[in-house]
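pinging the channel bc i need a second pair of eyes. not urgent but kinda urgent?? the chain im working w is below, pasted from the shared doc
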Amino acid sequence: MGTLRIHFTADDLARVTLADAHDPLWEMILTRFRFRDRVRPLAFRPWFEELHAEPARTAQMRQGARLLDSLVPSGPYFPDFLTPHEGLLSIERGLAALLGTPRGRLAAELWRLARHHSLPGWVRPLAEGDLGALKGLVAALRDYHEAAVAPFHELMTAAVAVDRACRAHSMLSGGVDGLFAGMRPLFRWTPPVLQTDYIVDKDLVLGGRGLLLVPSYFCHRAPLTLADPELPPVLIYPIEQRHRWRQPVTHRRDLGALMGANRSAVLHALDRSATTTQLARMLRISPAAASRHATVLREAGLIETRRDGIAVLHTLTPLGAALLDGSTGHLSA
C-alpha cells in the first residue's frame, strides 16, 4: 500500500467542492472490486445475496463483467476514459461521453494498461477507435449497470446523501480544515498536503484547479482518483460504514445469517469489552481465529480495537451495539 499526497494552494482550498451524489460509472466499476474482495464487507452482503438470488440478473451482467475484468483488473492502473466527468450527470451522459472518447486517448490509455496486464484480442479494435467495438462496450456496460447497480439506486442515494450531509456540515462549520478533520482516519491533513492510503505512491498537484470530492457507496477502505494528473482533479471517497446500514437486524438468528455464526458469536461476546485471548477462551476457538473475526468486524465499523498494555482490547462501537439491539433508531440515518 502506498500514499496519495494531494498538494493544495490557497486557490485550491477555495475550490474544494462536494459532489451532489454518487457517480454511477465509478460505482459500476467499483462493484467489480467488491466481487474480488477476499473478505467481503458485511454491509455489502445483502447486495451480493440479492444479485445471486436472480439468475436473470447475473446473466445480464455477464458480458459487462467480462469486459470490465479485462479493462479494470486488480492492480495500479485502469483507463480514465471509463469514468468521464459527465457520469456525474447521469449514466446515459457518462456512457455517451465514453462513446465519444478520442481515438488517440483510447490508444494511449489502453497501451498503458497493456504494460501492466496482458489484454485479450478484442481490446485491439477498441484501442483503434472502432465505433462498433465502442458501441459494444457501451451496450455491455449499460446492461451491467441495469442489473448490478440501478436496482439499488434508492439505497445508494439515501446512504450517500446522509454521508454528504455530514461532510457538508463539517465544511460549513469548520471550512476545509473541518471537512478533512471530520474524515479522519481516512485522510491525514497537514496543510497544504492531504494524504491518504493508496494503491501506489502518487503526488497530485492541484495547481489552482481545486478538488471535487465524490462520495461512493461501493468504494471501500481507500479513495481513488484519476490516473492522468492533467484531467480535472477528482477524489472518489468511501462513505462511512455506518451509513450503509439501512435496515435493523432484530434477532440473533438474523444476525447469524448476515455475518455467519462465528462472527455473530464474537459480536455477541463483546457486549463487554474483551481481549483477543478472552474472546478465544469464551468461544473455544483459537486466538488466531478470534483475531481474524475481530479484524472483519472492525473493518465493518462494528467494533473498535485499542492496546491495553500488552493486550489488545476489543469494544463494540455504537453501530455494533445498535446492530445487536436491533434498534431502528440507531441503524437508519
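so The chain has 15 helices and eleven strands. and The first strand starts at residue 2 and ends at 7. — does that match what u expected or am i reading it wrong
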